[in-house]
Amino acid sequence: MTEEAFPYTRRFLQGRSRDALSDREKGLLEGLVDKVERFTAPHTILNRGDVVDQSTILIEGTVARVIHEDGKRHIVALHVPGDFVDLHGFALKRLDHDVVSIGSVQIGFAPHDRIQKILETEPTLARMLWYSTLLDAAMHREWIMKLERLSADGRLAHLVAELWQRLDFVDLAGENGFSLPLTQQELADACGTTSIHMNRVVKKLRETGVVDISRGQVTVLDKTLLKELGAFDPAYLYGRGPLKLT
Amino acid sequence: MTEEAFPYTRRFLQGRSRDALSDREKGLLEGLVDKVERFTAPHTILNRGDVVDQSTILIEGTVARVIHEDGKRHIVALHVPGDFVDLHGFALKRLDHDVVSIGSVQIGFAPHDRIQKILETEPTLARMLWYSTLLDAAMHREWIMKLERLSADGRLAHLVAELWQRLDFVDLAGENGFSLPLTQQELADACGTTSIHMNRVVKKLRETGVVDISRGQVTVLDKTLLKELGAFDPAYLYGRGPLKLT
DNA sequence: CTCGGCCACTAACATAGGTTAACTTCCAAG
DNA sequence: CTTGGAAGTTAACCTATGTTAGTGGCCGAG
């Protein structure tokens, strides 16, 4: 059975294949997905405060977790294909943030009662699902560190480095870049700065030969500079060793 | 059987008693703790990169999760009694941050093999443990929001409000304040600023009648101002309604 | 085609916060 | 009591970043 047999969860498995799963287990995981939807325009998929009875897995595209506060958008996490976006909703029930699509996305929905069943009968899968939410928390911690420590240039560099690495884990990173449908405003929302200042920073990184971000495409010009500027050490992603960012 | 019968996990249960547990389950949880240690001086209990085979629960005092990066300390989380500090170590195995004691602390250790056994046989407890790590992640997200959005005054106000609320959940908050053994340098490390600037901020909040932080004691002078300045909405703590901060 | 709106981009100015360098207060060790 | 170090405090100066106000380009709707 090839991996293509699991269209919804293939990248999830790629991204965190710490324990090898049997085909039976892979099938159970795939079976969590109940229905699939596509959103082509920016769309708020879930709202803060929503009581949820299903969780969402990102199959294709980009989604952000957003906290709105007096008119401002704050991106607290970004997701790449294969990520379980709100698995935490299973246990917390009520969401503490919005989930919004960026660009065109495809999303799978996993009803909580199916997840419940797996938790009760499949310890390996249960552990993998838990593990997945813990990875999220580890990324949150790194973002906290990055926000506490780095200035705007460093934050952007860190964000780019992290996304490149995470996309590489799921075979979606190019040799020297990746496509990223975020506007400068959204980059600013993720780095805790303003779009005006983000524009200055994007320009600076382009001119200093670190990275070029334009027309939805990220082109890494100098890996070493990027890593240094972003103080990026991929250990927190718990992956199988960095690939693109040697 | 009174709650005092569970000296190690009593506050853990207070803090997140979402599902009522039977005394049998409470006993199993209490039985996770293998040995207890006290540290009176500041002490690094666990180091980043450590491979762990036990997790730690905070029984008394304060501990911080810290990421050191070129000489600087970054506090990414603070813990109050009852918190499972590194439950995530159970699944991740390798720590992505240090765990350090602040002031005098008492800590319990729970070997991973005991946790493993509970996960396999006790779905309610398993879910509660998972829930506990998800709460951590929700707090991380709020910190990210706070760092992205608020200036130093607001960050400090938010930190104070959060800690007051969390201490209140475990009956350790006073009527108009709480004791907090953090130095201004450590407050700065948690708010992503410098100790010099933190000093300015502490002074300002004292003079504007918001909160007085001195000699290890926090005295809230005006709840409403504190909440506003820190943009604090306790929903993300998933508690049973705010008490001190109406 | 052309209009309206979003996005990228720029300039001029204001301010929060970083840096360096002091001095003071407190307290514990001797 | 004396000493030394850590914590708190302040001042002067400088830079990163926020704010306000605008420009021009692109693109989809009509």
Notes on the structure:
2 copies of one chain form a homodimer. The first copy, chain A, has 246 residues and is of the alpha+beta class. Chain A folds into 2 domains: 3-130, Jelly Rolls (Sandwich); 150-237, Orthogonal Bundle (Arc Repressor Mutant, subunit A), CATH 1.10.10. Chain A contains 9 helices and 8 strands. In chain A, strands 1, 2, 3, 4 and 5 form a 5-stranded antiparallel beta sheet that branches. Chain A has a 3-stranded antiparallel beta sheet with strand order 6-8-7. The radius of gyration of chain A is 18 Å and the shape is globular. Chain A starts with 9 loop residues before the first helix and ends in a 17-residue tail after the last helix. The interface between A and B is large, with 45 and 45 residues. Chain A binds a DNA duplex (30 and 30 nucleotides) through helix 8.
